[in-house]
Design goal:
With 237 residues, the protein is an alpha+beta fold. The chain is 30% helix and 34% strand.
Length: 237
């Protein structure tokens, strides 16, 4: 079967990206310039660009036109319980934490259901930002029963939250039930992360359980979608 002109244009652009001639995050040459370089019709170039945008090789900004999609520096494996610190440090960055607030409040009915505690039982609430080389990457809102870990105990632990929970409760997280949701814009969180109104966020809602299937931690993790890519393996049943 003969290769179409659109295929040839697509493959030319892919090879230009692989060779580093077209750089990630940089705009493409004009469709007319590409058409003249390859001696193809501009319609073929338009179609090739549209297909590569659909395939997320290219991205499109309505004001600036098409560009080579920027690379994500971080990968988060959805099929594993992996700390955000490890995600950051695996890519050679220094992981850090900026704390926003600590509080202990009565549980809402939703908190009580998620954590399997009595209504209005107190929960410890920790608001923080995880950073890579001091740059914000993930906004975290964590809730857990105050009887398991108080704000003061966590602040004195000098450990990760999961390690602090294990140290004070002797409960180790075995797995996490995870929901994933795309968020277009959230004023407070986007501002904390330094994300523009045009930059999307990915929200992971996680309920962490111990080996006895008892919930120990309820978390909201907002990731800057421009920085983090999510990976998982799906098996056919």
């Amino acid at each position: 079967m003969e290769l179409t002109s659109v295929y040839k244009v697509k493959e030319w652009m892919i090879q230009q990206i692989k060779a580093g001639i077209l750089q990630h995050g940089e705009p493409l040459p004009s469709n007319l310039a590409i058409a003249r370089t390859l001696n193809f019709k501009t319609d073929d170039v338009y179609d090739a660009v549209d297909e590569l945008i659909t395939e997320q090789v290219l991205s499109n900004n309505l004001e600036e036109g098409a560009s080579v999609k920027s690379l994500h520096p971080f990968y988060y494996p959805l099929g594993e319980v992996v700390s955000i610190s490890k995600m950051i440090e695996d890519q050679g960055y220094k992981a850090g934490t900026e704390y926003i607030s600590f509080d202990e409040k009565p549980a809402t009915s939703l908190d009580a259901m998620r954590l399997n505690i009595a209504d209005k039982a107190y929960v410890t609430i920790i608001e923080r930002v995880r950073t890579a080389d001091n740059n914000p990457v993930v906004y975290c809102l964590d809730k857990l029963p105050t009887e398991s870990l108080t704000c003061a105990e966590y602040q004195n632990s000098d450990e990760s939250l999961l390690d602090a929970i294990e140290a004070y409760t002797n409960k180790k997280v075995a797995f996490a039930d995870t929901e994933m949701e795309a968020i277009s814009y959230e004023p407070h969180i986007s501002n904390v992360l330094g994300a523009s109104p045009h930059e999307g966020l990915m929200l992971l809602k996680l309920v962490h359980y111990d080996k006895d299937n008892q919930p120990v931690l309820y978390s909201f993790n907002y990731f800057k979608s421009s920085l983090v890519k999510f990976k998982t393996v799906k098996n056919r049943l």
